[in-house]
Write a structure and sequence with these properties.
The structure holds two protein chains of two kinds. Chain A is mainly alpha-helical. Chain A is built from 15 helices and no strands. Helix content of chain A is 77%, strand content 0%. In chain A, helix 9 (191-229) crosses helix 11 (243-280), helix 10 (231-238) crosses helix 11 (243-280) and helix 12 packs antiparallel against helix 13 (299-327). The two termini of chain A are 24 Å apart. In chain B, 33% of the residues lie in helices and 21% in strands. Chain B has a seven-stranded mixed sheet with strand order 8-9-10-1-11-19-12, with helices on both faces. A six-stranded mixed sheet of chain B has the order 14-18-13-17-15-16. The radius of gyration of chain B is 27 Å and the shape is globular. Classes of the chains: A mainly alpha, B alpha+beta. Chains A and B meet through helix 2, helix 3, helix 5, helix 6 and helix 7 of A and helix 1, helix 2, strand 10, helix 9 and helix 15 of B.
Chain lengths: 351, 535
């Protein structure tokens, strides 16, 4: 186990280093001049030149790059040419809120998609199966943007059940501990604020989750079908186990292996998809921050946010591997003997 | 080990809709549970507090709260409540006193003497003196960013005593006084105490150091900025809001819902199609004339557009009326020349082309121009630009001029303008004069100094215009200045360096019961919250 983790950590560092190099090079071809952005729209040539020197952008590319790598190794992501704050500070201010949104969406995703997939597989080919698949498909087919606005219209503007935008109602205040509003309210012992933060989270999380539900539901359904057809299910039934135990304990546990891979990847994608949702619902977040950075050719912020999203991908991947090892003990044995990669092929899992 | 069949799976056997209902009930229960603990949505729990709070919806968050960057509207907007300026523009484009009560330019136009109020206190209680003003100006001079671009003439300042300041300029520069309307005065002791190694930039990015009517009390990035009343404000208060919140809601549709819900009081980015509906629903739609103009600049060198006849023909081929009615929905005026008519010294007699296809065709025929193809770049940022670009393309097709459109971002456009080779034949862009002095259009957009660097987008070069504008900068006599600006406008009009497409109005929608809101042409896309009365 320790050797596995170590190997994953080493490869992760290589992946992130590669990401840093590639993003740095890509920011060089971004249109726009950071020095002019910083100097302002009406700046004269001399002013832009002076700002360029201040920012170190007058030095050759390789010097800028090695300087950047050096700072990166010391955990310094540089200073934003636009906000003048350290990139890391900006990200630290934005990320928790995005993470909160992603976690809530992920919870909805799992709670909806997994039972939906299991149920569809269990009632395969029946109207219930078709209905379940339709629900999932609908979620994926509706544009995020439109869905968000419709949910706002129905639940906030018409029914007035849920708040329209923001993260806390007017007048509520929570201490900033983790940066996640709901968690901070809970930690601060402010229950009304906690409930309020949750209510602010529902619509955006639903909107974000909608497009991801279909993929997970389909994966769970297909692997569940394979699982339900296999011999060990027949065996379990023959031993007189309850139907629930058969389906969930024996069937779902195996079907969750491929689904957990998908869910892990989705964690990263969701973080990238927060852009639209955060802007519709007026939430703080890293998605909107990254887009603004690209438009303002704020290069260190661009690289910083890409790296952070990259870290989330990598961490999610390691977590998925660990979960799979836990779900399927056979993988542990296989790996020790043959040194096979930890992510198993579908066929192997369902065999 | 038997467990009761209480899962969605088991339940689903009884009803095909079982699962869906479980999910729905769960969501509603969660919602209801939240509701019971925190009262009705929209914060009506503390309704008195809400009434005393002015909430403004705005679509783009500021990069920083450091007022040195207030040359851009998002930073300007959050600086206005928190900081004082020496002077400001009153209605009609006249410069009025603020912290400075009197000022005189020396005869040679190189020094400016100012008298300051003696009752201005910063939010921490310290008194504002001439030293703070000097510090603010020097800091801008050191940083050379943002508003520094409006103050290139600044050389040094001397605090004569607490309420007297002498500013020296490198060369005579009359528009300097107007530029001071963008200089937000800093608490020098407070900033110096937190200056760090970057002249306080990092500290001021998140903290306030002003003497304005409201002090910054909190900022949630991309979400909202909060201000609360500064009770020691020298101007005093009548029925202004106790707190001010600027909420960042990028989507026009969200702003509209928030406004109708009563979650916000003022919205700055409502879709033109919603104006009528909101007005009949009891909201106030404020349409104000601006100094903003939409231009298409012609590339003046190594381009088919270098041909003056072609440029003239094109200016006659655009349907300006349709732009007013269909694109702006009536919220705008036709442009008259390169200066907006609300600007001081705007010359109404300047020749401005109207829609006349026959005239356009005859100009082309007389010049023997056939099969012309032009490239055109526009910013996709606003609906007006997008629609105007297509309208121009189809109008020009009627006179046999083919236009290849490309939508770009602002940084891309700036990059294209850096060399004549990459400059598009036609480039559509707004002119946002940073303050309503004719110099900020005629100098920044038409002086050859700014070719391939700055806002002279088409590379317009006419030595006569350069001289007129630079001479005008040296004159402190307003009438004499105006005469030169009028001549410059006539000269520019004769060269046809641009299509002056429109002079759009700025539309703000706010709830009934708010009084005192007025668009300020000197601070486009902002709200002067101190003027707004909520009671």
């Amino acid at each position: 186990m320790a050797r596995f983790l170590l190997r994953r950590l080493v490869t992760s560092v290589i992946v992130l280093a590669g990401l840093a190099v590639v993003t740095f090079l890509m920011t060089q071809v971004l249109p726009g001049d950071p020095a002019r952005t910083a100097a302002g729209r009406n700046a004269t040539a001399e002013q832009v030149a002076q700002v360029r020197i201040q920012l170190g952008l007058d030095r050759p590319l390789w010097q800028q790059f090695t300087g950047y790598l050096d700072r990166l190794l010391h955990g310094d992501l540089g200073v934003s040419v636009f906000t003048q704050r350290p990139v890391l500070d900006d990200i630290a201010a934005m990320l928790p809120s995005s993470v909160e949104l992603v976690l809530a969406a992920m919870a909805i995703n799992i709670v909806v998609a997994v039972p939906l997939g299991v149920y569809a597989a269990y009632r395969r080919g029946r109207p219930a199966d078709i209905a379940a698949r339709l629900i999932a498909l609908l979620g994926a087919a509706v544009p995020v943007f439109w869905l968000g606005l419709m949910l706002q219209l129905v639940f906030a503007a018409e029914l007035r059940l849920l708040p329209l935008t923001g993260q806390l109602a007017f007048g509520q205040d929570v201490p900033r501990i983790t940066g996640m509003t709901s968690l901070d309210a809970l930690l601060g012992g402010n229950l009304p604020a906690f409930g309020d933060a949750l209510r602010h989270l529902i619509l955006p999380a639903l909107t974000l989750a909608a497009s991801f539900v279909a993929v997970v539901a389909r994966t769970v359904r297909s692997s569940m079908i394979t699982a339900l057809d296999s011999d060990y299910i027949t065996l379990a039934r023959a031993t007189g186990a309850s139907e629930f135990r058969v389906v969930v304990r024996h069937g779902l546990r195996n079907a969750m292996v491929p689904a957990s891979t998908i869910l892990g990847m989705q964690l990263g994608w969701m973080l990238g998809s927060t852009v639209l949702v955060e802007s519709i619902f007026g939430r703080t977040g890293i998605g909107a921050h990254a887009v603004a950075a690209v438009l303002q050719s704020d290069l260190y912020t661009v690289i910083g946010t890409v790296l952070v999203i990259g870290v989330v991908f990598v961490v999610a991947n390691i977590a998925v591997d660990l979960i799979q090892l836990w779900l399927n003990p056979r993988l542990r044995r296989t790996k020790r003997r043959t040194g096979e990669p930890a992510v198993p092929a579908l066929a192997e899992v369902n065999a | 080990m038997h467990r009761p069949p209480a899962t969605p799976v088991a339940r689903g056997r009884r009803s095909t809709l079982g699962l869906t209902s479980v999910v729905l009930v769960g969501a509603l229960a969660l919602a209801a549970c939240g509701q019971s603990t925190s009262g009705a949505p929209g914060g009506s729990g503390g309704s008195d507090v809400r009434k005393q709070t002015l909430i403004i919806a705005e679509n783009e968050p500021p990069a920083t709260f450091d007022p040195v960057q207030a040359d851009n509207s998002t930073v300007d907007e959050v600086s206005i409540p928190a900081y004082d300026t020496l002077v400001k523009y009153a209605k009609g484009g006249v410069i009025a006193p603020a912290v400075a009560t009197e000022w005189t330019f020396s005869k040679d136009g190189k020094t400016l003497d100012l008298t300051l109020r003696d009752d201005v206190t910063f939010h921490d209680g310290t008194r504002l003196t001439a030293t703070d003003v000097k510090y603010t100006l020097d800091r801008i001079g050191r940083l050379q960013m943002g508003v520094a671009s409006l103050m290139t003439a600044y050389d040094s300042a001397e605090a004569v005593d607490d309420t007297h300041l002498k500013i020296s300029l490198k060369q005579p520069y009359a528009p300097f006084l107007g530029a001071l309307s963008r200089v937000y005065l800093l608490n020098s002791k407070l900033v110096q105490a937190n200056a760090g190694s970057d002249d306080g930039r990092q500290w001021l990015a998140a903290n306030g150091a002003g003497s304005g009517p409201y002090k910054l009390t909190g900022y949630t990035p991309n979400q909202e900025a909060k201000f609360t009343r500064h009770d020691g404000y020298w101007g005093g208060f009548t029925k202004q809001a106790k707190d001010v919140v600027i909420r960042y809601l990028p989507q026009a549709a969200t702003q509209k819902t928030a406004l109708s819900n009563g979650d916000v009081d003022i919205a700055m980015d409502i879709d033109p199609n919603d104006w009528a509906g909101l007005e009949s629903g009891g909201h106030v739609v404020d349409k104000a004339d601006t100094n903003v103009q939409l231009y298409v600049f012609f590339k003046m060198k190594d381009s088919p557009a270098a041909d003056k006849a072609l440029r003239e023909a094109i200016t006659y081929a655009y349907d300006y009326d349709q732009h007013q009615s269909a694109i702006l929905k009536g919220a705008g005026k036709k442009a008259a020349g390169v200066l907006a008519s609300t600007m001081a010294c705007a010359d109404p007699t300047v020749a401005q082309a109207g829609y006349d296809l026959d005239k356009a065709k005859s100009i082309l025929d007389a010049a023997g121009l056939k099969n012309v193809t032009l490239t055109m770049s526009y910013l996709k940022a606003t609906a007006e630009m997008e629609q105007a670009a297509t309208l121009l393309q189809s109008d020009l097709a009627k006179i046999g001029v083919k236009v290849e459109l490309s939508a770009v971002t602002y940084p891309q456009y700036v990059e294209m303008l850096k060399s004549n080779e990459t400059t598009p034949d036609l480039g559509m862009i707004y002119g946002f004069p940073p303050y309503p002095d004719p110099d900020s259009v005629l100098h920044l957009q038409f002086n050859s100094k700014f070719i391939n660097n700055g806002q002279n987008s088409g590379g317009y070069h006419n030595p006569k215009v350069d001289k007129l504008v630079e001479d005008a900068q040296k004159l402190t006599d307003e009438e004499a200045r105006c005469a030169l600006y009028k001549e410059a406008q006539q000269t520019i009009a004769a060269d046809h360096p641009s299509i002056n497409m429109s002079n759009p109005q700025y539309v703000t929608v706010h709830r009934k019961g708010l009084t005192g809101y007025a668009y300020d042409p000197a601070h486009h896309q902002t709200v002067d919250v101190y003027q707004v009365q909520v009671g």
